[in-house]
Batch of 2 targets.
Target 1
Amino acid sequence: MQSPADGVPSPRTKNKEITRSAPSGKQRDAFFDNAKFLAIVLVAVGHAWGQILDDGAVETAYRVVYTFHMPAFILISGYFSRSFDLRPKHVKRLITGVIVPYVVFETAYSLFQRYGNDDPDHGITLLDPTYHLWFLCALVVWRMTTPLWRMIRHPLAVSLVLAALGSVSPQIGDDLELQRVLQFLPFFVLGLILRPEHFQRVHRRSVRLMSLPLLAAATVVAWWSVPRMRLGWLYHSSAAEELGAPWWAGPVMVFGTLGCSLLLTACFFAWVPRRHMWFTALGAGTIYGYLLHAFLVKAGNYAGWFDDPVFEEPLGVIGLTVLAAAAVTALCTKPVQRTLRCVVEPKMAWAFREDPGGTARDRERRTGTEVRTPGEKVSVQLSN
């Protein structure tokens, strides 16, 4: 019998190696953490720029960023929702990680509006999401329908049809931001379809080189569109008639803007680092930055900070940009996560029944043994 020193590990050594290597399969992908962090920085910067849009250069940059920053987020969300089904474990995570934070922060932002902006009549409603919280409502709908998208043929084509129909239906109204749910749906469905090799392809040198003229062209188009196209087309929150356009313009603009968003999203991914960076670890805390940064933006509005003439100067705009990026970075850090995990990522074990089947499956994965239900037949194979 050969010893481990002879080049063939013993069974005990194999088990130790498997134990050591198992956690590595669960390591976070640096690329996606980097992408999420850079996207949340763009979200915060975009919200800051949104308060000083009187400057043509700022609005041009704002339109470019708004073309792809949320599509990138939504596509990543779809990619990581591929395994979602209606098992109790997944539904529990949806409740604790999306629905509960939405309820908590929707209430908090409503109270902040009431007392911070001296608006005592401002009501608290969960049907009309505040500002950026529409994304959580959309994520609930998208994830709950994931089994459907995984089951049907041509899911992307179906989602595009729904997005187009949403753009011609003002009757949908503002409840739960269903216009955005429908019009951004294709990016979530696209994320469900993509595979790791697709993200590797956009990292080719040729794609990076092509992204530079594409970004330049997008900037020119954005500058041209400032006096000619309403921002609502980029928000995807309204039907065509609500934007003062004929109904048929809805599908045309939806397909056009989504196509531009897809190109710029690919350009964005092409430049996201694949290796560990100083900010990679912050990618795990982007939900904290997303939920919290709008308090600062709203506080600035309530206090009239953005009316200061300093923001009419280039140095003022640069300073605001740096400040927004630094603030959202700080909100993604571990101390903030530890402090607010109880409301952003609560465990809530007290609220749920234990799932015996899920516990058995987890034990099976840990031990490598087969767990059978009572009465289940077992096939036995005889080896020579």
Target 2
Amino acid sequence: MVYVLGIDGGGSKTVCVLMDDLHQVLGRGEAGSSNYQSIGIEATLQSIQSAIYNAVEAAIITNNVKIGAICLGLAGVGRAADIKVVKSLVQELQNNKSLPIIWALQPVNIVICNDALIALVGGIGQPVGIVVAAGTGSIIFGRNHQGDTKRVGGWGYILGDEGSAYKIAIAAMNAALKSYDGREISTSLLEDFKQHLDLESIEDLIEVIYRRGWGVKKIAALAPIVDLAAASGDIVANNIIDDAVKELVKATSTVIDAIFNADSVLEVVRTGSVWQGKCNIHDRFAASIVKIFPEVKVIFPRYEAAYGAALLALQITQN
């Protein structure tokens, strides 16, 4: 029996899936962040080890598990320097005697990639199609049958991330302040932010955002306020949501034009918190894409990203 590990490592948590050669998930484990660029290599190693340990323990296999392949899909990994760092982490994993694992890895059976690829494979169930990831940040990634890939976005909150929760929240606060100034039409967002943040005046946003040093994640967490306002019919909030949809549609169209034919039958999977709202942003996006590319089917994820990582690891053993 061949066993493989699929690792989904992000800024908030790490997920590991233990899979057999029949595509059955035998165990799943979680741990903390594994973005080494923000928490360091040692902490990243600890998170990955913990996630693997928890997955193997959940499998309730009496003997030590023999691992024939591993795929690590980690946030921000793409450059040669990143891959070198992650390879060293895999070596450290194999040197760890506390893990209930027998390692049978060859260099060719170690897959290191960014988290967009495993989100695509997990979401669709195969490594062909497009993933539109819109959470705190945003990135659109596609892969065709020939193995050609195309990425659009993923440039971070300063240089990009159009259609993300962060950009939606920033646009909404900007609109609320413009409304307060009299430069924008009236919007419920002004009162919504005051209530949510317990502000006496919308002017107190200055203290919250600047003086408290709010980071990207905290600001992005305000996006549901915009979603609810849009669902309630607020014109300004709906314009912000529509602008986000336009950006995501444009990016997705760019990927389709780059590596697919205009009449290709393909699936586009949506992942991330932005799609979970009540204002039907998912339907707006799907309708816009299908209008341009009638053969495209827009779906929600069939499986999680760690499952996609395990599929990629298993694919290596079967080639």
